[in-house]
Amino acid sequence: xxxxxxxxxxxxxxxxxxxxxxxxxxxxxxxxxxxxxxxxxxxxxxxxxxxxxxxxxxxxxxxxxxxxxxxxxxxxxxxxxxxxxxxxxxxxxxxxxxxxxxxxxxxxxxxxxxxxxxxxxxxxxxxxxxxxxxxxxxxxxxxxxxxxxxxxxxxxxxxxxxxxxxxxxxxxxxxxxxxxxxxxxxxxxxxxxxxxxxxxxxxxxxxxxxxxxxxxxxxxxxxxxxxxxxxxxxxxxxxxxxxxxxxxxxxxxxxxxxxxxxxxxxxxxxxxxxxxxxxxxxxxxxxxxxxxxxxxxxxxxxxxxxxxxxxxxxxxxxxxxxxxxxxxxxxxxxxxxxxxxxxxxxx
Length: 347
Known about the structure:
The protein is mainly β. The protein has one domain (32-345): YVTN repeat-like/Quinoprotein amine dehydrogenase (Methylamine Dehydrogenase, Chain H, 7 Propeller), CATH 2.130.10. Helix content is 6%, strand content 46%. It is built from one helix and 28 strands. Strands 1-28-27-26 form a four-stranded antiparallel β-sheet, with no helix packed on it. Strand 22 and strand 23 (282-286) form a beta hairpin. The longest helix is centred in the N-terminal third of the chain and has 20 residues, at 2-21. The termini are far apart. The model is unreliable at 1-22 (pLDDT under 50).
């Protein structure tokens, strides 16, 4: 019994040291811009890294020239100012999308003019645009995701997450969606604790990956062959599409990679946004706890993590809504829910 008590104390000491060493420090941004007076609901960086599109709270969505700290366009669906809850860009950066409740407007980035206004029978939770913005993948609040042909104005496929993974008799809400760079595949993540891979030509499911909580982020690796998925208050994983096997789990703590992660809150995190470097060798993640982390793609090893500064000291909670590498890969941009945009030079 004495030996067991001593071992238990020793393990607690080790865990305490691991958690202490793994703490993240606040870092001053190299550049900072106020993009909103109060806060934003959503943010997305343009593929060329020049602009950020913000879904502001009770204000028009605004497209900012980042380095010049200048509003290029203010966009809203109609004369009444609404709340833009979802935003995005086509992969070629020529089309932007803003969503208010059940309506999406597609905008031409070159001149700021509306291209098309699309209304749906239910509210839109998240969206993804194809390479040229001619297709949309939407997660809807009716527990479906739809693949939509913008030009033909019709639904091509409807995707659903049945409740069997969580022992539910009803379909579960789909939270997030993503389209592959090739335009051949779709990713969906839902409250059934799964991320699912779909063939966009046939509409058939190809893969399903179980998580430990509702899936809140999905992303394709730009070079193909892999996907990143993550659960809220859980873990974020990198998967091999061909084999379906997990390559690694991103670990913000210094817990050894060959040890199984303990089922303890300090070892779990929520990833809210991700981006890959121009050379595809690194990835950056943003989190609800002001945290930004840089990783090696090949190994999943953490390079560093830091915390974005708060706008107000008495408001500690800051969600990182969007991150992006600069076009030269030497810096990282971040956009926080407190309306602050920041630039971080890589050391």
